[in-house]
Structures are given as C-alpha cells and as structure tokens.
Amino acid sequence: MALIVQKYGGTSVANPERIRNVARRVARFRALGHQVVVVVSAMSGETNKLIALAKEIMPDPDPRELDVLVSTGEQVTIALLSLALMDLGVKAKSYTGAQVRILTDAAHTKARILQIDEDNIRRDLNAGNVVVVAGFQGVDEAGNITTLGRGGSDTTGVALAAALKADECQIYTDVDGVYTTDPRIVPEARRLKSITFEEMLEMASLGSKVLQIRSVEFAGKYKVKLRVLSSFEEEGEGTLITFEDENNMEQPVISGIAFNRDEAKVTVLGVPDRPGIAYQILGPIADANIDVDIIIQNVAADGTTDFTFTVHKNELQKALGILKGVQAHIGAREVVGADNIAKVSIVGVGMRSHVGIASLMFRTLAEEGINIQMISTSEIKISVAIEEKYMELAVRVLHKAFELEDA
Ligand code: ADP
Ligand code: ASP
Ligand code: MG
Questions:
Q1: I need a surface site. Which of 113, 215, 373, 386 has the fewest CB within 10 A?
Q2: Where are the beta strands (DSSP E) in 197-262?
Q3: How do 304-312 and 226-230 pair as beta strands?
Q4: CA of 203, closest atom in ligand 1
Q5: 35 pLDDT exceeds 90?
C-alpha cells in the first residue's frame, strides 16, 4: 500500500463528465489498496473569469479581496469531486486550504507555504477516506485566505506530498508528460521519459507552465518523487523528474526549449559610466518590488553607456514611471520601454560538458534573420530576448537545430 498525492489541473476537471473521470481513476487507485490525497484546481477558465469580474468592479483589485474571490474556484471542484467519489461508493471528504491549515505568509496573490498541518488528513486517510484538497490556496497567521500565484495547485500537491511523506506525487494534466517544448507550439515535440530537477526548475522559471516553479523547488528540496501524466489517458508512464545521478550517461546536450511572452524591456540611454549607476537605476525598481530578469550594461566608449533590463509586462509602466522620476538625478539622456519582446531559452545539463551550443543557437537564429536583442546565460541555459513576432519561429527552428524532434 502506498500513499499517493494526485493533482488534477483545470482542464482535467472542466465539466461534470471529466470530474467523474477523475473520480474513476482515484477509485481505481483506492481499489488497489492505496491511500489517495487529491488536489484539484478550479474548472478551466474559472480563475480567469473571477479575476475579470473583480477588475470590472475595481481595475486594480485589492489583493486580500481578490484572494477571497479567486479561492472560490477550487472550493467548487473539491465538493464536486467528493460527490463524484461518493457516487462511486468511495468514501471522500473535501478540505479548503484553511481547513487543512495550509499556513502561508501574508503575501496575497503570491503567498508562500510555510507549514502544513497534516493531522486531519492523516486521520481521514486512516479512516478509509480519499481526502480532496483545494489547490492554490492557504491561510495566513491572521486567518486571511491567501493564494499561491497562478498555477499554484501544483505547489499545493507537491507540498502536501512532502508534508505527508507520500510515496509519489502525480501531476495529471492535459499533456502526457513534460515535452522538449510546448507541444502546442511545436507539434513534433517529444515527451521526455525523465528530466532532472535542475532542468525542470530552469524550464519552469523560463516560462514552461506545465509545472509551477515553486512546485519543482519543493520537490527538489524535500526529495518528492514527482511525475507528470495525462488525465485523459488510461495508461502511460508520463515524465519522471529525477536527480541527475539517476540518469543515464546518454543525456542529450539540450533537454528542452522554454519561452516567455511576459517580459518587457526597459532601456536607460546615455547614463554616465561611473560607480553606483546600476544601483541608482535598479535600487528604486527593487524598492517598488518589481522583479528584474535579464540585465545588460554596455561598456562605455565615450563616458556614457546604455543600461537595459527586463521586467514583467504588467510592471513596465510602473518601472518607466519610477525611472523617469530619477532620470535627471542619474544624468541619463532618455528612458524607453518596449513590450514587444519574448524570451526563448534552451536548457540542458549537457551544456556543462559540450562546447558550441551558444554558437549553434545564434547561427540558427541568424539564418532566419531573427535579431537577438539580449543574451543571458547560466551553466545549463542560454536565453535570448527577441522580437515577440518571431518567437514561435525561433522555438521551431531551434527545436529542429538541436534535433529534439520525435525520432
Ligand atoms: P493544468 O491546468 O493541468 O495545470 P497547465 O495549462 O497549467 O495545465 O499546463 C499544461 C500545459 O503546459 C500544456 O497544455 C502545454 O501547452 C503547456 N506546456 C508548456 N511547456 C510544456 C512542456 N515543455 N511540456 C509539456 N507541456 C508544456
Ligand atoms: N486555478 C488556479 C489558476 O488558474 C491555480 C491552478 O490552476 O493551479 O492559476
Ligand atoms: Mg497548471
């Protein structure tokens, strides 16, 4: 007998028939004698609908009230799934995040899980119940409902698996595993039998939304056995997220390609080339809680230089406003922004031991006439910022150039 945490995403619980389908799968695991905790997302589209509703009332909604609102989506599905299980004769009990007591910090709309009380869940499991938990939500010390950021049900699933020391955490979604890139963009993309935590962490943080980044962090930290599978197929081993030493020696150089349309570019032109400039530019941006990704500063030839960085598209106007406020003080000539960029990244632990990866990437883009605006690298990834309209083309040609297609 194993203890398994299964998480089902929005498309997997999109309507009553799919919810019944999930219940049938859970029932099969129960019939094999396993204990099962199920985490569910809101029905697909619901979270977006709720956010849009809030914005109709208040364009920039108060974060506490937004969390009260959007957390209702998951409350609907836990009850429906519990009913579907009961209808199959399976004992089930639903819990909201607060009822479990998934304690988080107070950062509304992007809270972090601090602690999980597992006593209630354990008791119900031992009494023969399937425990159905609302994903994406928690409660802070003061009792306020919080949410974990978009895609946060993945993190609920993995955090519960860690707290319960589950044998496996299974993430059921609308694809049958983690692919070399988003199969919606590249139909020839190939499912990976396994991918290392390190690579998955990079893929998630560089824009592959198949797993929320924090869920991968949790799984790595607490050594949770994590697998991504399809909720629409009966069989299939999905993709196992592994530690590197479990992998064979035949690691391909590049495991996958990630992309992100959410970034925008800020350029401060003609800044004096002297100590303290980077701090004077990025200090006020950090003080405003704006995350910065790629940063580039040119070498000055004539005493002044240009300073460019990227932020989330939603925060471009705020960042520009802040910098225009300090522009005179810094002595910069101009501050400009562009939101028509996208970031494309290649990821692979094999990069550590191979040369020529960057040049193949740059040559491939050059052959398509795609201009690279910014470059950023780490040990296992290379990212480029390009014009957004070339993003899909770039992903496709890189996928081919690195021979990632289905054989
Ligand atoms: P869920 O609602 O189940 O959480 P998501 O929409 O959050 O599902 O994540 C699954 C989607 O992630 C897939 O439909 C796919 O389009 C997208 N995706 C992006 N990158 C990848 C990748 N490398 N492998 C698989 N799916 C990916
Ligand atoms: N329902 C939430 C969202 O749409 C959480 C999730 O699906 O993981 O972001
Ligand atoms: Mg998701």
A1: 373
A2: 226-230, 239-242, 256-260
A3: unpaired
A4: 23
A5: yes
pLDDT of residue 14: 98
Residue 347: per-residue pLDDT: 97
Question: Which of 43, 110, 136 has most ligand 2 atoms within 8 Å of CB, for mutation?
Answer: 136
Cross-strand pairs, 93: 131
Pairing of strands 3-8, 168-173: parallel
Closest listed residue to residue 160, CA positions, set 171, 169, 151: 169
- pLDDT (mean) for 50-56: 98
Residue 394: beta bridge partners?
none
Q: How far is the CA of 211 from the centre of ligand 3 (A)?
A: 6
Distance between Cα 83 and ligand 2 center (Å):
21
Closest-lying ligand 2 atom to the alpha carbon of residue 212: 8
Please tell me the distance from the alpha carbon of residue 395 to that of residue 254, in angstroms, as a whole number: 13
Report the atom number in ligand 2 closest to the C-alpha of 74: 1
Residue 234 Cα to ligand 2 middle (Å): 24
- pLDDT number for residue 252: 80
Beta pairing class for 239-242 and 194-196? parallel
Compute, in angstroms, the gap from residue 222 CA to the centroid of ligand 1: 23
Beta bridge partners of 257: 346
Q: What is the DSSP string of 157-170?
A: HHHHHHHHT-SEEE
Report pTM: 0.93
How distant, in Å, are the alpha carbons of 8, 37, 140, 214 from that of 98?
Answer: 19, 16, 9, 20
C-alpha to C-alpha distance for 307 and 318, rounded to whole angstroms: 17
What does the pLDDT look like over 276-315, one tens digit per residue?
Answer: 999 999 999 999 989 999 999 888 788 899 999 999 999 9
* Mutate-to-test residue for ligand 2 from 12, 13, 47, highest number of ligand atoms within 8 A of CB: 47
